[in-house]
Specification:
Blueprint: E1 3-12, E2 25-33, E3 37-41, H1 48-54, E4 63-68, E5 71-72, H2 79-85, E6 86-89, H3 102-112, H4 117-130, H5 146-158, E7 164-168, H6 176-193, E8 196-201, E9 212-217, E10 220-225, H7 227-231, H8 234-239, H9 246-256, H10 268-281
Parallel strand pairs: 3-8, 3-9, 6-7, 7-8
Antiparallel strand pairs: 1-2, 1-4, 4-5, 9-10
Helix pairs in contact: 3-4, 3-5, 4-5, 5-6
């Protein structure tokens, strides 16, 4: 697979008028493969959300460059093309909603770029069906739960037919059930529609099904790898103020007590299976 997004040596400093500014991002380089599911993790203030806003041109690097589907984000004439390629869903869905009816909200951006009415109808219906919100098409967003509002926000981006969707802390305001629903939707978009997903989060359980994880700390990308490669580095992640999936943490604690089971377990099902195998050997 080729890279749909490439970040090369990106440094970013907020322009707050100060003569000396601390970098929010410092020499960050990473590649996102086309059709992959990528997770970016890090504690609050690590730079992960600042990085997310570089991935569709909301922020532009102070140094280095970002390329989205072959287009440099610094190309001002192509900025709307970039945002068609890479859509973004934010933490608070209320900040993205502009209409009083769900289907009108999903259609809003399409109307603004002059998509024909018949095509808008088709795209809105398809997007709402994909995220499981068809029966709420005529509902006011004010009557929806937080998770349902996020689904509507995702539908609004999905209707634009992006190649990439960036989820910027979209589950931060949701309960565990709501978080699972959103991540299940993201996985569906990735696996069934081939949309590249970039999930920015501090919930480690959301990263289990990723193809690749990038770890941010103090504005730098300090590690990357598959979930099994990264989460077995329990002590390293805890030093950064991060957690690991519950099953991984239990396996790590058992190993520290001399109970030898695989240290790269990710789910409770895997942990149960490992413990059952251990019992059979005793």
């Amino acid at each position: 697979m080729d890279n749909i997004i490439s970040v090369k040596n990106v440094t970013y400093k907020y322009d707050d008028g100060a003569t000396s500014q601390e970098a929010a991002l410092e020499d960050v380089s990473l590649d996102v493969k086309r059709g992959s599911f990528v997770t970016v993790i890090g504690h609050n203030g690590s730079g992960k959300s600042t990085l997310a806003k570089h991935l569709n041109g909301l922020f532009l690097p102070s140094e280095g460059f970002v390329v989205v589907d072959g287009i440099y984000t610094t190309d001002e004439e192509q900025i709307w093309e970039i945002r068609k390629v890479a859509g973004m869903v934010f933490q608070n869905p209320d900040n993205q909603m502009v209409a009083t009816v769900v289907e009108e909200d999903v259609a809003f951006a399409l109307e603004n770029i002059g998509i024909p009415s018949e095509e808008i109808r088709k795209r809105v219906d398809n997007a709402l069906e994909t995220v499981g919100m068809t029966k709420f098409a005529k509902t006011s967003p004010s009557h929806l739960s937080g998770g349902q509002k996020q689904r509507v926000s995702i539908a609004g981006v999905l209707a634009m037919k992006p190649k990439v969707i960036i989820f910027d802390e979209v589950t931060a305001m949701l309960d565990p059930l709501g978080r699972k629903g959103i991540i299940d939707t993201a996985l569906k978009l990735n696996k069934e529609l081939g949309i590249t997903i970039i999930n920015i989060t501090h919930y480690m359980e959301e990263a289990i099904n990723s193809d690749e994880i990038f770890v941010m700390n103090d504005g730098k990308c300090v590690a990357s790898g598959t979930p099994r490669e990264l989460f077995k580095r329990v002590d390293f992640l805890k030093e950064l103020g991060l957690t690991v999936p519950v099953a991984t943490d239990i396996a790590h604690r058992l190993n520290s007590k001399g109970i030898e089971i695989p240290c790269n377990l990710l789910t409770m099902d895997e942990l149960t299976e490992a413990l059952c195998q251990l019992k059979q050997k005793i």
